[in-house]
């Protein structure tokens, strides 16, 4: 998760000098633009609305690696390449009162994910617990979106997804697992739910892509190459990751001195929950590139979604109170004398970003994303008429 602007200020995080001069675009404008892009590909209006909502929620939360920044390279370019499809049915393969296995048929994960999470929540509301496994999906955006769907409806939420191989196992250098987020959401008396949404790697590909847009090095310790050397050259890392010559390190880093085996274990757990139930592919089969030809190929991903209806166990208000009291005590605990003077709990940095960005009137759009928007506007049918001039033109 990116540090939101408010938190960066607290920690004296540096920004490029030009950052303050970037145009600010209203969230509703940006969401509508993304929706129109999806519509131009033939996504139905209802699904286009959902897809754009998942993406704009990332930008609202300060997760810049997964919002507008992913619209063109992850979704549009892949639809253009014919390795994911804008409109496919979601098939139920098996189903019981509390469980289901569904097939997304390589449609947009941005509408497959919400469909599956709502299935899990509906089952939980009837029977206490709902679990849905999904196969043949594609990138489903920020995993925290799904945990928040559950918390908004009085449930505990749990989700995860695999991805193209990026993480090397402890004492290995070959990318074998995706960045594989393991995500929980719990409702609270706070103004925001407790949602822990993070990859099982030290860093993740979207963040490295963000470093590339900003022209900065990747922090040491996040990437290892096939010679066992830690890499910081962002552009080279992205190039070599496609070739399978670089790998991300698991949470805890390379080796076992800082507990890298823990992150490796969690990444493997997610990979198994996304493939074993689904009989789904992993590793090279979802790398997205035909190694022989260099051409793009489909990446059939797996997801899982769990919802627990709190009211089936205890009153929702009691659960929220208990959760809120603990989190408040954590935030009020003794601060490090050389730290920023504040303790954040999960979900709070994203809430800070939402408040700060709402107060400034929306999101700042960096130059590479301005170019992406212009490119989409100029080349997608109907968009030039609807957007003759973008806010930064």
Strand content: 5-15%
Biggest sheet strand line-up: 2-3-4-10-5-6-7
Instruction: Report the principal-axis shape.
Output: globular
How many DSSP helices? 13
**What structural class do you assign from the helix and strand content?**
alpha+beta
Give the uncertain stretches in residue-range form. Answer: 1-17
Using the CA coordinates, give the radius of gyration.
Answer: 21 Å
Helix content: 25-40%
Query: What is the string of SSEs from the N terminus onward?
Result: HEHHHEEHEHEEEHEHEHEHHEHH
* First-to-last CA distance: 30 Å
Q: Characterize the largest beta sheet: strand count, sense, and whether it forms a barrel.
A: 7 strands, mixed
How many strand units? 11
Mean pLDDT: 93
């Amino acid at each position: 998760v990116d540090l939101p602007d408010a938190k960066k200020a607290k920690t004296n995080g540096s920004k490029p000098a030009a950052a303050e001069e970037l145009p600010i675009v209203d969230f509703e404008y940006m969401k509508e633009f993304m929706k129109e892009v999806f519509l131009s590909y033939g996504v139905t209006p209802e699904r286009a609305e959902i897809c754009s909502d998942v993406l704009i929620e990332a930008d609202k939360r300060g997760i810049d690696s997964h919002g507008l920044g992913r619209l063109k390279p992850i979704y549009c370019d892949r639809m253009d390449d014919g390795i994911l499809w804008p409109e496919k049915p979601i098939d139920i393969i098996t189903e019981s009162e509390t469980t289901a296995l569904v097939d997304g048929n390589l449609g947009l994960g941005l509408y497959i994910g919400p469909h599956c999470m709502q299935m899990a929540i509906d089952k939980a509301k009837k029977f206490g617990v709902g679990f849905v496994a999904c196969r043949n999906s594609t990138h489903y955006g920020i995993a925290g979106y799904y945990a928040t769907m559950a918390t908004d409806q009085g449930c505990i939420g749990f989700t995860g997804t695999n991805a193209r191989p990026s993480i090397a196992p402890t004492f290995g250098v070959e990318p074998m697992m995706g960045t594989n987020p393991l995500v929980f959401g719990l409702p609270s008396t706070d103004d925001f739910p407790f949602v822990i949404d993070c990859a099982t790697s030290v860093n993740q590909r979207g963040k490295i892509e963000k470093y590339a847009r900003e022209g900065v090095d990747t922090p040491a310790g996040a990437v290892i190459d096939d010679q066992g050397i830690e890499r910081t050259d962002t552009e080279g890392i992205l190039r070599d990751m496609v070739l399978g010559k670089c790998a991300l390190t698991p949470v805890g880093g390379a080796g076992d001195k800082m507990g890298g085996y823990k992150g490796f274990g969690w990444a493997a757990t997610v990979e198994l929950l996304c493939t074993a139930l689904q009989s789904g592919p992993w590793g090279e089969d979802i790398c997205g590139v035909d190694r022989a030809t260099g051409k793009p190929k489909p990446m059939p991903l797996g997801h899982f979604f769990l919802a627990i209806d709190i009211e089936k166990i205890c009153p929702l208000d009691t659960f929220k109170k208990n959760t809120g009291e603990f989190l408040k005590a954590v935030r009020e605990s003794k601060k490090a004398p050389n730290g920023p003077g504040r303790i954040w709990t999960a979900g709070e940095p994203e809430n800070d970003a939402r408040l700060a960005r709402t107060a400034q009137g929306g999101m700042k759009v960096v130059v590479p994303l301005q170019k992406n928007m212009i490119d989409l506007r100029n080349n997608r049918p109907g968009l030039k008429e609807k957007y003759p001039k973008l806010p930064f033109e």
